[in-house]
Design goal:
alpha+beta
Length: 297
């Protein structure tokens, strides 16, 4: 693709690239709102640039570098973040597709995003650009201002870490939905044993309240502890008007929980075979503002 400085007067010259750019930024930052800011900033830089011969490469480079800059400040913010951090949940995973034929092109799961979060920013960039967005290392080297060999090493280290930290491949949608329903039924029954049997023995529950809403300050680990936590939580909200709606969150079946008409949390799961490996609860209101359902109910 090529474009000179004499650009056509399209309403949105970024339209052919927007989903890919948002998808890259979201995977880098774990924040939909920050991703939109980055893409807007990239557009402004594109609008002020001269003689851009490869529009997509220019935009991907700018977005990558802006994300790397943001990750530096995010590190300091994360050190004072209260409790566990989870990504902002998104409903439109298909709109954030990498548009590539890679194994991870459409994976926006919390499990993958948390595995990415453990990488250094440069490892994350090299891995995403190559393994998710199918960018050649020769182009990645120019984007990251590193040698091609260095970028290969970054991606290789990241690949090993992702394999070690990411649960088994996602379950089928039917299996995912069935386990979510069984989980909901077990919580409603108040039967700790019934709920624990749905969980992998080393299952983990992570709740992100960001200091704004009540949430466990540390991950809860172990089937029995996780089961008791959720049944205890259900007991605490039983006196309120509770509504649970299914929703596709980060590309997989999840749930929205409303308390007295207000969106209170999103619930997502990682499935390993026929067991629940991890449960992710986002309660931080700052991470729920962008969800369309928050304003409809």
């Amino acid at each position: 693709m090529s474009m000179s400085s004499n650009r056509p007067h399209d309403d949105d010259p970024l339209a052919p690239h927007r989903g890919r750019l948002l998808g890259l930024a979201y995977r880098m930052l774990g924040s939909r709102s920050d991703s939109e800011d980055v893409v807007q900033d990239a557009y402004l830089r594109f609008a002020g640039a001269q003689d851009v011969h490869n529009v997509e490469a220019f935009l991907v480079t700018v977005v990558t570098r802006l994300c790397l800059d943001r990750l530096k400040s995010a590190k300091a913010q994360r050190e004072i973040y209260i409790g566990p951090w989870l990504p902002e949940p998104v409903f439109d995973a298909e709109g954030l597709s990498a548009e590539a034929a890679t194994e991870l092109a459409d994976d926006l799961s919390f499990a993958l995003l948390l595995a990415l979060d453990r990488l250094s920013p440069m490892e994350r960039a090299a891995f995403l650009l190559h393994d998710v967005f199918d960018t050649p290392f020769s182009e990645i080297a120019a984007m990251l201002d590193r040698t091609e060999a260095s970028c290969r090493q970054l991606a290789s280290r990241a690949r090993r870490a992702v394999r070690d930290n990411r649960p088994a491949p996602a379950a089928t949608p039917d299996s995912h939905a069935r386990l979510l329903q069984a989980f909901s039924d077990a919580v409603a029954s108040g039967n700790v044993r019934q709920l624990a049997e749905l969980l992998r023995e080393d299952a983990v529950a992570i709740t992100d309240g960001g200091g704004r809403k009540f949430a466990a300050r540390n991950p809860i680990i172990g089937a029995d502890k996780v089961a008791r936590f959720f049944i205890g939580l259900a007991g605490k909200i039983a006196s309120q008007d509770v509504r649970i709606e299914p929703a596709v969150i980060n590309g997989a079946v999840g749930a929205l929980l409303y308390l007295d008409g207000e969106l209170d949390l999103t619930l997502s799961m990682a499935i390993d075979g026929e067991k629940i490996a991890a449960i992710y609860i986002v309660r931080n209101p700052d991470k729920l503002r962008h969800l369309p359902s928050a304003s409809r109910h």
